[in-house]
Design goal:
By secondary structure, the protein is mostly helical. It has four helices and no strands. The protein has a domain of 87 residues. The radius of gyration is 35 Å and the shape is flat.
Length: 162
């Protein structure tokens, strides 16, 4: 495994040096490779967590299913026993594992963090713009009211002068 990583590092350092136009490396290739390896490890861990939940759920389903069928064959009626309950518990446990694995996949995605900061900054920007628009609307309403009052006073002045 180390030999493969060293080989990849040599190739990556060659391409980084070629395409950057600078003889010196602007950043370390080791950092990039370690970051990629960490992300792959997190991804594989979350996927294995989901798969183990799927296996648990399927095993629990089949245990419960076959236990209920065997009770139906023996007693000629539906009977829910402890083994079937344990199978359904395994199904619930498997669903919990799948849920947690999906949440791990969501937390490990690199796009989720910048989107949160963008939404926070955009929300403050949206608030500032909405306050500015609200202030503008209120100012226009006050101007309209003052114009109406001025027109009413002119109208009453014209009527009183007659």
């Amino acid at each position: 495994m180390n030999r493969v990583l060293k080989f990849i590092m040599v190739i990556a350092s060659y391409f980084v040096g070629q395409f950057s136009g600078v003889k010196e490396k602007p950043f370390s290739v080791d950092v990039i490779i370690n970051t990629i390896i960490d992300r792959i490890k997190d991804l594989i861990g979350a996927i294995l967590f989901c798969l183990s939940g799927l296996v648990l759920g399927l095993v629990g389903f089949f245990v419960a299913y076959f236990n209920i069928l065997s009770e139906f064959d023996r007693n000629s009626g539906f009977s829910f026993g402890a083994v079937a309950g344990g199978g359904l518990f395994l199904v619930l446990l498997g669903l919990l594992f799948i849920y947690l694995g999906v949440r791990l996949l969501g937390e490990k995605s690199p796009q989720s963090k910048p989107q949160q900061t963008k939404s926070q900054s955009s929300s403050t920007l949206e608030q500032a713009i909405s306050l500015l628009i609200l202030d503008f609307v209120k100012e226009r309403e006050s101007r309209r009211e003052s114009q109406r009052e001025a027109q009413k006073q002119k109208g009453t002045d014209n009527v009183s002068s007659l």
